[in-house]
Design goal:
By secondary structure, the chain is an alpha/beta fold. Helix content is 33%, strand content 22%. The protein contains 4 helices and 5 strands. Helix 3 links the parallel strand 2 and strand 3.
């Protein structure tokens, strides 16, 4: 995902899990959006919990949460958070972020990139 977001002109910062994403957010007030999967093998929270934590602490940050296995329940995601079911086209994610008019993204990864 990071590669196609970068190719679309977004500045992409990657985090290995939700905990690292929160650490990056605290250090980088210029971040304007997060793209995250629901399921992350590491860390203390999943993507739904990350969305709620970010919404509480940084309500102006746009968010896209994705999953191929889980769909959010009625109260699992804040109203402003976009949810995309997998599989999705890269252009769909790009369009959602562009509609938010947000140039930067933090993306918690499911695994370290080589």
């Amino acid at each position: 995902m990071a590669d196609f977001l970068d190719e679309a002109g977004f500045k992409v910062l990657e985090a290995v899990d939700a905990d690292e994403a929160l650490t990056v957010l605290k250090a980088r007030p210029d971040i304007q959006a997060i793209v995250s999967d629901v399921e992350m093998p590491r860390g203390s929270m999943n993507g739904f919990e990350l969305a709620r934590a970010v919404h509480e602490q940084w309500p102006g940050i746009g968010m896209v949460i994705t999953s191929g296995r889980k769909r959010p329940g009625p109260d699992e995601l804040p109203e402003a958070v976009a949810f995309l079911s997998k599989p999705y086209l890269p252009d769909t994610v790009i369009e959602v972020i562009r509609q938010m008019a947000l140039p930067q993204v933090v993306e918690p990864q499911m695994a370290n990139r080589a």
